[in-house]
Amino acid sequence: MPAEPLWLIELFARRQSPTVGSIDVYESQGGNDLPSTGDFRSDVKDATIEIIQYLYLHDSPFTVNIYPFLSLHGNNHFPIEFAFFDGESTWVKDGDRIYTNVFDANLDTLVSALDKNGFSNMTIIIGEVGWQTDGDKNTNTQNARRFNQGLLEHAMSGNGTPARGGPINVYLFSLIDKNAKDINAGTFERYWGIFKFDRKPKYELDLMGKNGNKGLAAVEGVRYLSKRWCVFNPDATDLEDLPDSISYACAHSDCIVLGYGSSYNHLNPEGNASYAFNMYYQVNNQNDGNCDFSRLAIVTDEDPSDKVCQFPVMIADGSPVMLRRGALGYFA
Protein backbone atom coordinates (compact mmCIF):
# COMPACT_ATOMS: atom_id res chain seq x y z
CA MET A 1 0.00 0.00 0.00
CA PRO A 2 1.49 3.41 -0.93
CA ALA A 3 2.21 5.86 1.87
CA GLU A 4 -0.47 8.45 2.57
CA PRO A 5 0.32 11.93 1.24
CA LEU A 6 1.79 14.24 3.90
CA TRP A 7 -1.05 16.75 3.47
CA LEU A 8 -3.61 14.03 4.26
CA ILE A 9 -1.81 13.02 7.45
CA GLU A 10 -1.62 16.66 8.57
CA LEU A 11 -5.30 17.19 7.76
CA PHE A 12 -6.27 14.17 9.86
CA ALA A 13 -4.09 15.34 12.73
CA ARG A 14 -5.64 18.81 12.76
CA ARG A 15 -9.30 17.88 12.65
CA GLN A 16 -11.15 17.64 15.93
CA SER A 17 -11.84 14.02 16.75
CA PRO A 18 -15.27 13.40 18.34
CA THR A 19 -14.12 10.32 20.26
CA VAL A 20 -16.71 9.42 22.87
CA GLY A 21 -15.50 8.17 26.22
CA SER A 22 -17.52 5.97 28.53
CA ILE A 23 -18.41 6.87 32.10
CA ASP A 24 -17.10 3.38 32.89
CA VAL A 25 -13.49 4.51 32.40
CA TYR A 26 -13.52 6.85 35.41
CA GLU A 27 -14.72 6.45 38.98
CA SER A 28 -14.41 7.78 42.50
CA GLN A 29 -11.51 6.27 44.40
CA GLY A 30 -11.07 5.10 47.98
CA GLY A 31 -14.45 3.45 48.41
CA ASN A 32 -16.47 6.67 48.48
CA ASP A 33 -18.63 8.63 46.03
CA LEU A 34 -16.83 11.98 46.28
CA PRO A 35 -16.26 13.56 42.86
CA SER A 36 -12.93 15.08 44.00
CA THR A 37 -11.45 11.56 44.27
CA GLY A 38 -12.23 10.81 40.64
CA ASP A 39 -9.61 9.11 38.50
CA PHE A 40 -9.45 6.75 35.56
CA ARG A 41 -9.81 3.06 36.33
CA SER A 42 -6.46 1.41 36.88
CA ASP A 43 -7.16 -1.45 34.44
CA VAL A 44 -7.80 0.93 31.53
CA LYS A 45 -5.88 3.98 32.66
CA ASP A 46 -2.88 3.67 30.34
CA ALA A 47 -5.04 3.20 27.26
CA THR A 48 -7.38 6.01 28.31
CA ILE A 49 -4.53 8.45 28.91
CA GLU A 50 -3.06 7.58 25.51
CA ILE A 51 -6.34 8.46 23.80
CA ILE A 52 -6.77 11.66 25.83
CA GLN A 53 -3.21 12.69 25.06
CA TYR A 54 -3.91 12.39 21.35
CA LEU A 55 -7.11 14.41 21.66
CA TYR A 56 -5.39 17.05 23.78
CA LEU A 57 -2.49 17.50 21.37
CA HIS A 58 -4.94 18.07 18.52
CA ASP A 59 -7.11 20.49 20.44
CA SER A 60 -10.04 18.09 20.53
CA PRO A 61 -12.56 17.77 23.37
CA PHE A 62 -13.19 14.80 25.61
CA THR A 63 -16.73 13.67 24.83
CA VAL A 64 -18.69 11.57 27.31
CA ASN A 65 -22.24 10.28 27.53
CA ILE A 66 -23.93 10.75 30.92
CA TYR A 67 -27.27 9.14 31.75
CA PRO A 68 -28.64 10.00 35.20
CA PHE A 69 -31.63 7.80 34.40
CA LEU A 70 -29.37 4.73 34.35
CA SER A 71 -28.22 5.49 37.89
CA LEU A 72 -31.85 5.36 38.94
CA HIS A 73 -32.72 2.36 36.77
CA GLY A 74 -29.86 0.26 38.07
CA ASN A 75 -30.36 0.91 41.79
CA ASN A 76 -33.69 0.61 43.60
CA HIS A 77 -32.21 2.57 46.50
CA PHE A 78 -31.05 5.50 44.39
CA PRO A 79 -32.84 8.73 45.49
CA ILE A 80 -34.99 9.77 42.54
CA GLU A 81 -34.73 13.49 43.36
CA PHE A 82 -30.95 13.29 42.94
CA ALA A 83 -31.52 12.47 39.27
CA PHE A 84 -33.15 15.86 38.56
CA PHE A 85 -31.98 19.47 38.65
CA ASP A 86 -34.73 21.22 40.61
CA GLY A 87 -34.10 19.68 44.01
CA GLU A 88 -32.61 21.61 46.91
CA SER A 89 -31.46 18.74 49.09
CA THR A 90 -27.75 18.15 49.58
CA TRP A 91 -27.03 14.59 48.49
CA VAL A 92 -23.24 14.77 48.33
CA LYS A 93 -20.96 17.14 50.27
CA ASP A 94 -17.40 17.10 48.99
CA GLY A 95 -15.39 19.57 51.06
CA ASP A 96 -16.91 22.96 50.32
CA ARG A 97 -18.67 21.65 47.20
CA ILE A 98 -22.35 20.81 47.41
CA TYR A 99 -24.01 18.42 44.94
CA THR A 100 -27.78 18.45 44.51
CA ASN A 101 -27.88 16.36 41.31
CA VAL A 102 -26.03 13.31 40.05
CA PHE A 103 -25.24 14.90 36.67
CA ASP A 104 -22.89 17.42 38.28
CA ALA A 105 -21.40 14.76 40.55
CA ASN A 106 -20.69 12.50 37.58
CA LEU A 107 -19.25 15.28 35.45
CA ASP A 108 -17.00 16.54 38.25
CA THR A 109 -15.70 13.01 38.78
CA LEU A 110 -14.43 13.23 35.20
CA VAL A 111 -13.11 16.76 35.81
CA SER A 112 -11.11 15.42 38.76
CA ALA A 113 -9.76 12.53 36.71
CA LEU A 114 -8.60 14.91 33.98
CA ASP A 115 -7.07 17.29 36.53
CA LYS A 116 -5.10 14.51 38.23
CA ASN A 117 -3.57 13.44 34.94
CA GLY A 118 -2.53 16.84 33.61
CA PHE A 119 -5.52 17.79 31.46
CA SER A 120 -7.10 20.51 33.59
CA ASN A 121 -7.86 22.75 30.61
CA MET A 122 -9.38 20.07 28.39
CA THR A 123 -12.81 20.88 27.00
CA ILE A 124 -15.56 18.42 27.93
CA ILE A 125 -18.63 17.81 25.78
CA ILE A 126 -21.60 15.75 26.89
CA GLY A 127 -22.29 13.75 23.74
CA GLU A 128 -25.58 12.24 24.92
CA VAL A 129 -27.86 13.05 27.83
CA GLY A 130 -31.62 12.85 28.15
CA TRP A 131 -34.62 11.06 29.62
CA GLN A 132 -37.08 8.60 28.11
CA THR A 133 -40.86 8.77 27.98
CA ASP A 134 -41.67 5.06 28.15
CA GLY A 135 -40.43 1.55 28.82
CA ASP A 136 -39.75 1.79 32.56
CA LYS A 137 -41.58 2.74 35.76
CA ASN A 138 -39.66 6.03 35.92
CA THR A 139 -40.02 6.97 32.26
CA ASN A 140 -42.93 9.22 31.31
CA THR A 141 -43.49 12.62 29.72
CA GLN A 142 -43.57 14.37 33.10
CA ASN A 143 -40.16 13.07 34.18
CA ALA A 144 -38.70 13.56 30.70
CA ARG A 145 -39.75 17.19 30.58
CA ARG A 146 -38.63 17.80 34.14
CA PHE A 147 -35.18 16.41 33.44
CA ASN A 148 -34.61 17.88 29.97
CA GLN A 149 -35.90 21.35 30.86
CA GLY A 150 -33.82 21.35 34.01
CA LEU A 151 -30.79 20.19 32.04
CA LEU A 152 -31.11 22.99 29.48
CA GLU A 153 -31.58 25.65 32.13
CA HIS A 154 -28.60 24.34 34.07
CA ALA A 155 -26.33 23.98 31.02
CA MET A 156 -27.08 27.47 29.72
CA SER A 157 -27.03 29.27 33.06
CA GLY A 158 -23.27 29.71 32.98
CA ASN A 159 -22.95 28.40 36.53
CA GLY A 160 -21.36 25.14 35.47
CA THR A 161 -20.63 22.50 38.08
CA PRO A 162 -19.12 22.94 41.55
CA ALA A 163 -15.67 22.02 40.18
CA ARG A 164 -15.83 23.76 36.80
CA GLY A 165 -17.79 26.95 36.14
CA GLY A 166 -19.16 28.22 32.85
CA PRO A 167 -21.67 26.92 30.29
CA ILE A 168 -21.90 23.16 29.88
CA ASN A 169 -21.70 21.78 26.34
CA VAL A 170 -24.43 19.16 25.91
CA TYR A 171 -26.10 17.28 23.09
CA LEU A 172 -29.64 16.35 24.04
CA PHE A 173 -30.51 12.74 23.30
CA SER A 174 -32.55 12.31 21.29
CA LEU A 175 -34.60 14.12 18.66
CA ILE A 176 -37.02 11.31 17.80
CA ASP A 177 -37.94 7.85 19.08
CA LYS A 178 -36.40 4.78 17.48
CA ASN A 179 -39.07 2.11 17.49
CA ALA A 180 -36.81 -0.50 15.90
CA LYS A 181 -33.82 0.06 18.18
CA ASP A 182 -32.28 -2.93 19.90
CA ILE A 183 -33.56 -3.30 23.48
CA ASN A 184 -30.90 -5.56 24.96
CA ALA A 185 -29.84 -2.71 27.24
CA GLY A 186 -33.43 -2.12 28.35
CA THR A 187 -36.95 -1.72 27.00
CA PHE A 188 -36.64 2.03 27.53
CA GLU A 189 -34.08 2.35 24.72
CA ARG A 190 -36.68 3.16 22.06
CA TYR A 191 -38.20 6.21 23.74
CA TRP A 192 -35.52 8.86 24.25
CA GLY A 193 -37.03 11.23 21.68
CA ILE A 194 -38.53 14.64 22.40
CA PHE A 195 -40.61 14.19 19.21
CA LYS A 196 -42.85 11.34 18.14
CA PHE A 197 -42.12 9.75 14.81
CA ASP A 198 -44.64 12.01 13.06
CA ARG A 199 -42.60 14.93 14.45
CA LYS A 200 -45.19 16.01 16.97
CA PRO A 201 -43.59 17.14 20.24
CA LYS A 202 -44.30 14.91 23.21
CA TYR A 203 -44.21 17.78 25.69
CA GLU A 204 -43.37 21.47 26.00
CA LEU A 205 -39.65 22.19 26.04
CA ASP A 206 -37.96 25.59 25.87
CA LEU A 207 -34.68 24.99 24.06
CA MET A 208 -33.47 28.44 25.10
CA GLY A 209 -33.18 27.10 28.64
CA LYS A 210 -35.50 29.70 30.14
CA ASN A 211 -38.53 27.49 30.86
CA GLY A 212 -40.64 29.94 28.88
CA ASN A 213 -43.55 29.47 26.52
CA LYS A 214 -41.45 28.86 23.44
CA GLY A 215 -42.42 25.27 22.86
CA LEU A 216 -41.37 22.80 20.20
CA ALA A 217 -43.08 23.11 16.81
CA ALA A 218 -44.68 20.16 15.05
CA VAL A 219 -44.09 19.41 11.37
CA GLU A 220 -47.00 20.63 9.25
CA GLY A 221 -48.78 18.76 6.49
CA VAL A 222 -48.46 15.24 7.92
CA ARG A 223 -50.92 12.87 6.25
CA TYR A 224 -52.13 9.61 7.71
CA LEU A 225 -53.80 6.49 6.37
CA SER A 226 -57.50 5.91 6.88
CA LYS A 227 -58.81 5.88 10.42
CA ARG A 228 -58.91 2.11 10.68
CA TRP A 229 -57.63 -0.13 13.42
CA CYS A 230 -57.12 -3.84 13.95
CA VAL A 231 -58.51 -5.07 17.27
CA PHE A 232 -59.27 -8.25 19.14
CA ASN A 233 -62.40 -9.95 17.82
CA PRO A 234 -64.93 -10.03 20.71
CA ASP A 235 -66.75 -12.92 19.01
CA ALA A 236 -63.67 -15.14 18.94
CA THR A 237 -64.22 -18.43 20.78
CA ASP A 238 -61.08 -20.45 20.07
CA LEU A 239 -58.35 -18.60 21.98
CA GLU A 240 -55.72 -21.33 21.92
CA ASP A 241 -53.53 -19.41 19.49
CA LEU A 242 -53.99 -16.01 21.15
CA PRO A 243 -50.69 -15.92 23.14
CA ASP A 244 -48.65 -16.99 20.12
CA SER A 245 -50.49 -14.48 17.92
CA ILE A 246 -49.76 -11.63 20.30
CA SER A 247 -46.12 -12.67 20.54
CA TYR A 248 -45.83 -12.78 16.76
CA ALA A 249 -47.45 -9.37 16.33
CA CYS A 250 -45.17 -7.79 18.94
CA ALA A 251 -42.04 -9.44 17.57
CA HIS A 252 -42.72 -7.78 14.21
CA SER A 253 -43.76 -4.37 15.52
CA ASP A 254 -43.35 -2.62 18.88
CA CYS A 255 -45.30 -3.40 22.06
CA ILE A 256 -42.89 -2.03 24.66
CA VAL A 257 -45.55 0.33 26.00
CA LEU A 258 -47.54 -2.69 27.25
CA GLY A 259 -44.80 -3.85 29.61
CA TYR A 260 -44.50 -3.51 33.36
CA GLY A 261 -44.17 0.12 34.39
CA SER A 262 -44.89 1.36 30.87
CA SER A 263 -47.62 3.82 29.96
CA TYR A 264 -50.18 1.31 28.62
CA ASN A 265 -49.72 -1.29 31.34
CA HIS A 266 -53.29 -0.65 32.52
CA LEU A 267 -54.90 -2.40 29.52
CA ASN A 268 -56.79 -5.65 30.12
CA PRO A 269 -55.91 -8.83 28.18
CA GLU A 270 -58.26 -7.93 25.33
CA GLY A 271 -56.76 -4.45 25.19
CA ASN A 272 -53.24 -5.88 25.07
CA ALA A 273 -54.23 -8.14 22.18
CA SER A 274 -55.86 -5.26 20.34
CA TYR A 275 -52.84 -3.03 20.73
CA ALA A 276 -50.47 -5.75 19.53
CA PHE A 277 -52.66 -6.62 16.54
CA ASN A 278 -53.02 -2.97 15.58
CA MET A 279 -49.31 -2.29 15.73
CA TYR A 280 -48.68 -5.18 13.36
CA TYR A 281 -51.53 -4.04 11.11
CA GLN A 282 -50.20 -0.49 10.88
CA VAL A 283 -46.63 -1.58 10.26
CA ASN A 284 -47.97 -3.55 7.29
CA ASN A 285 -49.71 -0.53 5.74
CA GLN A 286 -53.19 -1.47 6.99
CA ASN A 287 -53.25 -4.53 4.77
CA ASP A 288 -56.44 -6.45 5.65
CA GLY A 289 -54.57 -9.72 5.28
CA ASN A 290 -52.50 -8.68 8.30
CA CYS A 291 -55.53 -8.37 10.54
CA ASP A 292 -56.83 -11.89 10.91
CA PHE A 293 -54.68 -14.00 13.25
CA SER A 294 -56.86 -17.07 12.76
CA ARG A 295 -60.01 -14.95 13.13
CA LEU A 296 -58.86 -13.54 16.45
CA ALA A 297 -58.75 -10.00 15.03
CA ILE A 298 -61.04 -7.72 13.04
CA VAL A 299 -60.76 -4.32 11.35
CA THR A 300 -62.79 -1.47 12.82
CA ASP A 301 -63.32 2.23 12.11
CA GLU A 302 -64.05 2.94 15.78
CA ASP A 303 -60.99 4.31 17.53
CA PRO A 304 -60.14 1.96 20.44
CA SER A 305 -57.94 4.57 22.15
CA ASP A 306 -58.68 5.77 25.66
CA LYS A 307 -57.51 8.83 27.61
CA VAL A 308 -54.13 7.24 28.24
CA CYS A 309 -53.56 4.72 25.46
CA GLN A 310 -53.42 5.92 21.86
CA PHE A 311 -53.82 3.29 19.15
CA PRO A 312 -51.70 4.65 16.28
CA VAL A 313 -52.51 5.09 12.61
CA MET A 314 -49.69 4.88 10.10
CA ILE A 315 -48.32 7.86 8.19
CA ALA A 316 -49.29 7.82 4.50
CA ASP A 317 -46.87 7.57 1.59
CA GLY A 318 -45.72 10.99 0.45
CA SER A 319 -46.09 12.59 3.86
CA PRO A 320 -43.28 15.03 4.76
CA VAL A 321 -42.05 12.75 7.54
CA MET A 322 -42.48 9.43 5.77
CA LEU A 323 -39.54 7.11 6.32
CA ARG A 324 -38.40 4.34 4.07
CA ARG A 325 -41.02 1.67 3.46
CA GLY A 326 -40.87 -1.18 5.93
CA ALA A 327 -39.35 0.88 8.78
CA LEU A 328 -41.08 1.17 12.11
CA GLY A 329 -42.14 4.50 13.50
CA TYR A 330 -44.77 5.71 11.05
CA PHE A 331 -47.32 6.34 13.72
CA ALA A 332 -49.60 9.20 14.70
From TrEMBL:
GO biological process terms, semicolon-separated: carbohydrate metabolic process
Catalytic reactions of this protein: Hydrolysis of (1->3)-beta-D-glucosidic linkages in (1->3)-beta-D-glucans
Assigned keywords, A-Z: Disulfide bond, Glycosidase, Hydrolase, Signal
Any one Gene Ontology molecular-function term assigned to this protein's record: glucan endo-1,3-beta-D-glucosidase activity
Residue ranges annotated for the X8 domain, each copy included: 228-311
Cross-referenced InterPro entries: GH, Glyco_hydro_17, Glyco_hydro_17_plant, X8
Top-level taxon of origin: Eukaryota
EC number of the protein: 3.2.1.39
SMART domains to which the protein is assigned, alphabetical: X8
Family to which this protein belongs: Belongs to the glycosyl hydrolase 17 family.
Full protein name: glucan endo-1,3-beta-D-glucosidase
